């Protein structure tokens, strides 16, 4: 068998130099993969399960934003946890580094190799093992695509408690490993609550079976929680028991225009109080974001005239008439009080989808501006627009737009700065400023995208030495040779 | 200073011999506390913060069910995490064992000493530091009583996302450390989701500050999760950032009578689907439980005649008219379909409270039967009554009653067997049978009360060697001298 030679660094040429500088790392003292290792993998997984063709490897080696580029020469596609266990036991013995990869939709470089780590993809682990039609507890393999699960369980009256832009390609295992948040965390809470059981394979190949058929299970340290959000540095999540909520039968959406941010906070407060049990999303976008959607994808402002801020309120429920009247009463009430000057609402499927487009297509339209500096932060709610406001004078004359939007109901802001192309000067105006400001406000430098490679150097801003040290001890304990997703987080 | 001598084992006399046998342990090789240690503690905490009087120590040394009895000769009452840190650093250096204790309302002996461990009580750490009136994020000391926090935040429109029988005396830190569940988990989810930040002190005195002002925070391994439910074996929880939900303005309750368990499942399914966003509690109790309430505390059956099972459905929401009509429609619908033969509902405060009494006073009335064997399990929902049914023929002629009740919406069953007094013969019919059956069904041997001392020997039924081993490694890593809550869980 002749292996295609794959030079380290060969594909770095396509990558923005800025990004390379931002993720400067030195290769760890891992073994380099040899032909005989590939033979072992082929014997274990079959040739279908071992990818060595450089062209085919291209998609495993870079993230979908084209920000990060590794040079792995082999991707492995196990079909079950027993195969994951065999792979890891072998890699641990041989001191070969491994990067677990799901749908490869991450934005912080957590799921792509940095050097020549072996890619362990969950692509072929996509079985839905069972759904309890009474309780909604689903046991599913890590590689199932989020939207596929949602479609599969719809006929049973359930839905997934997670909705995000990448749902058509992200893997559930990746969602769990990054603790994905998305549009409806305000309704369904975080994965730390809804994942009731989990199977993971540790670095040495040990299969940790923490699957569960029941929601309440207080039997010692809840170790499954360690894997939720740790981006594969402690183990590879292979299967999940997930508590699926009832599928809401009806939803209504309104987009409201606000003249200033105080009014936005009024909308938040009234929605939280008045629509409490129905509220399923509370999103905000500023004028700059909506203008970008209008400029770049041709979708118009649904209100008569531009406002400084727009709030999208979605409610869901089991009774269509109650849902529709609740939202209409809410909008009337909020307009009567002069909180918003204008609003538009819909309760039918098509209208709801059209209104959602104003929010959902922001990221896509922003990408068309040229180069985008993307940030995902949590900030105290009162400070929701402050990062954007502080950044505007700093980037004046350098940036095309500063767009502030995101899951306001959860204090999660997506701050995007666009320009025709990348520039060091612009970059220097943004970082480390935005991270420092976030921490000063008492926020989080990563709300829902994780730390990965991108934010690693800023983590000490967020977490003190004691915290990082304890994290490092846990990492060292569970993966002494540090073969699992090296260079990421810590 | 003359210390009152406190002989190890002195107070064991009051304890049921059966229980002593069930928790056989050998004292670890910890140091014994000396007068000079007490002097150090008094210098640190003041005499108010150090309890050495044997009579006063009585309540620290035994649990409120009177099942467990330790012989600690000192209880420490720090006021803040700095003092907790000093205490633990000193105890770790001196190799003195410590048992953290909250409101001492636990049922598995997790919060009382087994031998002469020092009691570290959170009783004087009861400050509410802040509540964000916009988001409902509250930062609160571990020693605050759950109900006190609920009362403090009511005027701001918030409530605590946890409700349980011991709310008037349990401490929030204890709730977190045991991952308490209670009546409304079905609505608010588990503490793993609602606790957004946490400060804990490790065995060596290190203060781990993971407090947070924001809900979404994905910055590496979410270590705070380790402390939720680990019953103080990894660290002492000292402060919590808790996401409080909006206080529901209205609630309605119905009690429905079912002739058989199939009908109970029908009620569950219809309630989950039809009342989805309103559903705040779904409790079940069998005829035996209600009969016990009638016999022992004189509260009558609210329905015309006895049924095999009763289901209590509570819904909550922001619009009183919607809530009342939703519940009434649900009850009519369920009666029209012949699922239940009789039901009674109320939407006014007094009526709701009266209906709740049928469920809430079960534990109290059961206690009046004499001796009670209490079990807290999770079982797959379809098997909810199976443990009780299997037990009845085994305990016939020995037990007074077998009562099955609990948080059915979460598959959490409270199985209670009563008798005039404790008997070995009866005990042998129940244990280990109930634990073995639970595990066979795919349930959990502890749904919401934890493992503590009581269930320690059954934990290997639930968790395999890999899981226990990984748990032990984490324990060893974080508390090398094992001074924190020894003899508990592992």
UniProtKB/TrEMBL annotation, chains A, B:
Please state every residue range assigned to the domain named FAD-binding PCMH-type.
68-247
Answer whether the UniProt record assigns the keyword Nuclease to this protein. Answer: no
- Localized where? Peroxisome
Q: Which residues form a coiled coil?
A: none
Q: Name one GO molecular function term.
A: FAD binding
Query: What is the protein's major site of localization?
Result: other
Q: Which InterPro entries match?
A: FAD-bd_oxidored_4_C (IPR004113), FAD-bd_PCMH (IPR016166), FAD-bd_PCMH-like_sf (IPR036318), FAD-bd_PCMH_sub1 (IPR016167), FAD-bd_PCMH_sub2 (IPR016169), FAD-linked_Oxase-like_C (IPR016164), FAD-oxidored/transferase_4 (IPR051264), Oxid_FAD_bind_N (IPR006094)
Give Gene Ontology CC terms: mitochondrion; peroxisome
Question: Which reaction equation describes what this protein catalyses?
Answer: (R)-malate + A = oxaloacetate + AH2
State the EC number(s). Answer: 1.1.99.39
Cofactor(s) of this protein: FAD
Family as reported in the entry's similarity comment? Belongs to the FAD-binding oxidoreductase/transferase type 4 family.
Q: What protein does this entry describe? A: D-2-hydroxyglutarate dehydrogenase, mitochondrial
The opening ranks of the lineage are: Eukaryota, Metazoa, Ecdysozoa, Arthropoda, Chelicerata
């Amino acid at each position: 068998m002749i292996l295609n030679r794959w030079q380290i660094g060969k594909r770095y040429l396509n990558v923005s130099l800025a990004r390379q500088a931002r993720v400067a790392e030195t290769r760890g003292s891992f073994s380099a993969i040899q032909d005989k290792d590939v033979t072992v993998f082929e014997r274990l997984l079959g040739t279908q399960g071992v990818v060595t063709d450089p062209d085919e490897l291209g998609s495993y080696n870079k993230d979908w934003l084209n920000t990060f580029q590794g040079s792995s020469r082999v991707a492995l596609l196990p079909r079950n946890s027993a195969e994951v266990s065999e792979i890891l036991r072998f890699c641990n013995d041989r001191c070969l580094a491994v990067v677990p990869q799901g749908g490869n939709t991450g934005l912080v470089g957590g799921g792509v190799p940095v050097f020549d780590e072996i890619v362990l993809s969950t692509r072929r682990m996509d079985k839905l093992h069972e759904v309890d039609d009474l309780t909604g507890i689903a046991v599913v393999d890590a590689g199932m695509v989020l939207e596929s699960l949602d479609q599969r369980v719809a006929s049973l009256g359930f839905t997934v408690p997670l909705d995000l832009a990448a749902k058509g390609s992200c893997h559930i295992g990746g969602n769990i490993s990054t603790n994905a948040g998305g549009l409806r965390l305000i309704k369904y809470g975080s994965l730390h609550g809804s994942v009731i059981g989990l199977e993971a394979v540790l670095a040495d190949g040990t299969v940790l079976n923490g699957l569960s058929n029941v929601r309440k299970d207080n039997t010692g340290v809840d170790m499954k929680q360690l894997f939720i959000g740790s981006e594969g540095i402690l183990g590879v999540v292979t299967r999940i028991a997930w508590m699926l909520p009832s599928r809401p039968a009806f939803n209504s959406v309104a987009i409201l225009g606000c003249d200033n941010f105080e009014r936005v906070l009024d909308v938040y407060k009234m929605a939280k109080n008045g629509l409490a049990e129905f509220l399923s999303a509370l999103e905000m976008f500023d004028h700059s974001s909506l203008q970008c959607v209008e400029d770049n994808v041709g979708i118009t402002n649904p209100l008569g005239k531009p406002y400084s801020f727009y709030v999208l309120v979605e409610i869901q429920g089991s009774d269509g008439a109650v849902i529709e009247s609740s939202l209409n009463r809410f909008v009337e009430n909020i307009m009567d009080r002069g909180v918003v000057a204008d609003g538009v609402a819909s309760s039918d499927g098509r209208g709801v989808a059209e209104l959602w487009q104003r929010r959902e297509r922001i990221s896509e339209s922003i990408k068309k501006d040229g180069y985008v500096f993307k940030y995902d932060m949590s900030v105290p709610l009162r400070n929701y627009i402050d990062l954007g406001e502080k950044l505007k004078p700093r980037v004046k004359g350098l940036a095309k737009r500063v767009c502030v939007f995101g899951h306001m109901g959860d204090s999660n802001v997506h701050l995007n700065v666009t320009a025709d192309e990348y520039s060091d000067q612009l970059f220097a105006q943004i970082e480390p400023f935005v991270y420092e400001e976030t921490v000063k406000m008492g926020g989080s430098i990563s709300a829902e995208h994780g730390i990965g490679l991108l934010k690693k150097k800023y983590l000490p801003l967020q977490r003190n030495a004691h915290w990082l040290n304890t994290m490092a001890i846990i990492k060292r304990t569970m993966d002494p040779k540090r073969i699992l997703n090296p260079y990421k987080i810590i």
